[in-house]
Write a structure and sequence with these properties.
2 copies of one chain form a homodimer.
Chain A lengths: L9 E4 L3 H12 L4 E5 L12 E4 L5 H8 L4 E4 L6 H9 L3 E2 L3 H8 L1 H10 L7 E4 L3 H8 L7 E5 L9 E4 L13 E5 L3 E11 L5 E3 L3 E5 L6 E6 L5 H18 L3 E10 L4 E7 L9 H4 L4 H9 L12 E8 L6 E6 L1 H4 L5 E5 L4 E2 L4 E9 L2 H14 L1 E4 L1
Parallel strand pairs in A: 1-2, 1-4, 2-3, 4-5
Antiparallel strand pairs in A: 6-9, 7-8, 7-9, 10-11, 10-12, 10-14, 12-13, 13-16, 14-15, 16-20, 17-19, 17-21, 18-20
Helix pairs in contact in A: 1-9, 2-3, 3-4, 4-5
Chain lengths: ~375, ~375
């Protein structure tokens, strides 16, 4: 298949910021790209060759879109997997596969998959409904505290709650869910693994998600992670074993906990470009987006090491601000060394909505981390 | 002016590959962008917010387009400057200015400008018509050999000829032209200077254009240039003085000769992103395209030093091939370390047409240069 010809069409399910950044690389390689998204204001509307409006969970919308392309990928997991399965049977190359997505879409299935494949993950229990949890606690089958996770459709922090007392269960949706032992961890780490259909595999360096000391929120993604070589090696091994078990094509971002004993436990995975890899655009020889494209098109994978140290700060909507977005002090942060803002192009801000990110690169990682703090203190995503 | 709002519009005259690469950065910053180009197949048609069809040399086309934007820039010099002058008077910010463009558009005017500003350049003579040259030789006012240059509209090697004998003059168009003393040079160097309206100035590192030993054609752009610190310093000084004389806003790419005595002579300039800066996308902290955008929007200029060594190879159409383009062996070069092809998206190839470029980055510049040679030997731009 000649990807670099106008007879080839790549389809992307989802037209958000990840798709938008992927389109930079389809444009760089001049690959014809079609995007399906439910919103007429999707960031991908520009820069795709064809933009199609449609519901990603709708069988017909996904099937009809998929029939028009040669290779189909995703930028969001919540898509109609039955349609993908039919498309695969009918010869469309779907990466990640319907099989991979089915396991990942449901957190209970995903956790069982790790257990079945002897992959390290925190102990958990599965419930058909949240209402069954109280009974399990009362019968001694479950002890507090734990992490409650909605099994399906949780995304970016929604659908996850730390439950310390029975009262914390109140207000949670009564849905299929899992409870996970609360693991006291030293670090949250991530490794992005790329694999193409020929079976070539490359891993990006281990990154560290640095949390705010008070708020339980990732503040910085730091590449490379400030951990020992032994811990980094173990994290890469776990990520590679996870990749092997899924047998995925494209990227697999593996989020992990480094426990107090320096064990590595898988938290969850994403079979696509991921927030923990944004700094690769400026810091790595190959960006995660170019690498995803190389992988799904069965091109040779690019170098994954870093040119320089990288730190990423998410730009999320400020609390109390809703409406037309304003990036306050963006010019001030652009004065700082090695600072690149990425604005996703969403017109409306809402509290905690992901509106962009800022990458800080420097030959000295500590200096990048210092500048990142200044960036975080300075820029604000507010409304008009 | 809030550039990061939907009320702001940036206009670009020209929709070719330079505009296309600039659009990557307008998309990154979510800046609303309008492009004017005469071809419906222009690489900028995708990824601009608005694409307008029109002749860049036509007063009305340029004026009417310019009236719709807040800041107007170019990706090609051959545009209607009278329209730009009117737009400036009417409050549109035009960078580079009509004044800068008027000097640069005509090679005779450009050379006189260097003389007037005590900037070093090779001696030259000016002729209203090529036919007058023979007379000058006969009267002893001009001696062979020399370089003949068409004064206007020469681009990418057209409009330039080395004249060694009177017979070489035959077949040249009878137009306004200059003749320049043939300078035996050690190296052709270039420095890109960025300047914003506030007067902030930054220079990218000196690059070297390595020529094919037989064919008189640039084969590689190498960053940084393999010259002594003293020569590099002198080249930067000449570039800065040139920038100061033009008082331009945006980028100014200054092409220079390093003579046998290590003098620096200005060859010519381009007030925009330039072929000698493509490697900045992968090699520099700030790409030339992002820097041009920062400069014309009066944003702080970014760091211009390199993360790693960079070499750039142009992808031009192979001799004897015309028609639908095929990039032969593109997958083979993507196997090599640190290799990124940029495909401009032109559907038709012609001999020597610029169809793309390949950047090779490496922590070791010599290794990048070695891989670049392999790239050049391997990939071919042919027709179906």
């Amino acid at each position: 298949m000649n990807y670099f010809s106008s007879n080839f069409k790549l389809g992307i399910l989802g037209g958000g910021q990840l798709g938008k950044m992927l389109l930079n690389d389809t444009r760089k390689f001049d690959i014809y790209t079609c995007v399906l998204d439910p919103s007429n204001e999707a960031p991908c509307k520009i820069a795709s060759n064809e933009f199609h409006l449609g519901d990603l969970m709708d069988y017909d919308a996904v099937y009809n879109f998929g029939k028009q392309v040669n290779v189909l990928t995703i930028e969001i997991e919540n898509v109609n997997v039955d349609a993908l399965e039919t498309l695969e049977k009918e010869g469309v190359k779907v990466y990640p596969s319907s099989k991979t997505l089915r396991i990942i879409q449901n957190k209970a299935t995903q956790k069982l998959f790790y257990v079945d494949n002897n992959l390290p993950t925190a102990p958990f229990s599965r419930f058909a409904y949240t209402s069954e949890i109280k009974e399990a606690i009362n019968h001694g089958g479950l002890s507090l505290p734990f992490v409650w996770k909605c099994a399906q459709f949780g995304y970016d922090g929604t659908g996850v709650k730390i439950v310390k007392s029975i009262e914390d269960l109140e207000g949670l949706p009564n849905v299929e869910c899992i409870t996970e032992t609360l693991v006291p961890f030293k670090n949250e780490l991530a490794v992005i693994v790329a694999r193409n259909p020929s079976g070539d595999i490359k891993t990006f360096p281990v990154v560290e998600m640095e949390f705010h000391p008070d708020a339980n929120q990732v503040e910085y993604v730091i590449c490379p992670a400030r951990v020992s070589d032994a811990v980094a090696k173990k994290a890469v091994e776990v990520a590679l074993n996870t990749s092997k078990a899924y047998n995925h094509v494209g990227l697999l971002a593996v989020e992990m906990f480094q426990t107090q004993n320096d064990d590595i436990l898988i938290n969850e995975v994403a079979p696509r470009p991921h927030n923990s890899g944004h700094q690769t655009i400026e810091a790595s020889y190959t960006s995660q987006f170019e690498q995803h494209l190389r992988a799904i098109l069965n091109l040779p994978l690019g170098r994954t090491n870093s040119k320089v140290g990288g730190v990423m700060v998410n730009l999320v909507g400020a609390e109390g601000c809703s409406g037309n977005v304003v990036y306050e002090n963006i010019e001030a942060i652009m004065k700082l060394d090695g600072v690149t803002p990425h604005i996703y192009g969403k017109k409306q801000t809402r509290p905690f909505r992901k509106m962009g990110h800022v990458t800080i690169v420097n030959e000295d990682l500590n200096e990048a981390r210092r500048i990142a703090e200044e960036v975080k203190k300075t820029i604000k995503v507010i409304s008009e």
